[in-house]
Amino acid sequence: MNAIFSKLTMYMQYPFVRYALVVGVLIAFCSSLFGVMLVLRRFSFIGDGLSHVAFGAMAIATVLKVTSNMLLALIITVVCAILLLRTGQNTKIKGDATLAMLSVGALAIGYLLMNLFSNSSNLSGDVCTILFGSVSILTLTQTEVWLCVVLSVVVVSIFVLFYNKIFAVTFDENFAQATGTKVELYNLLIGIIVAVIVVLAMNLVGSLLVSALVIFPPLSAMRIFKSFKGVTICSAALSVFCALIGMLVSILGGTPVGSTIVAVDIAAFVLACIIGKVLRRWCA
Question: Coiled-coil regions in this chain (predicted)?
Answer without folding.
Answer: none
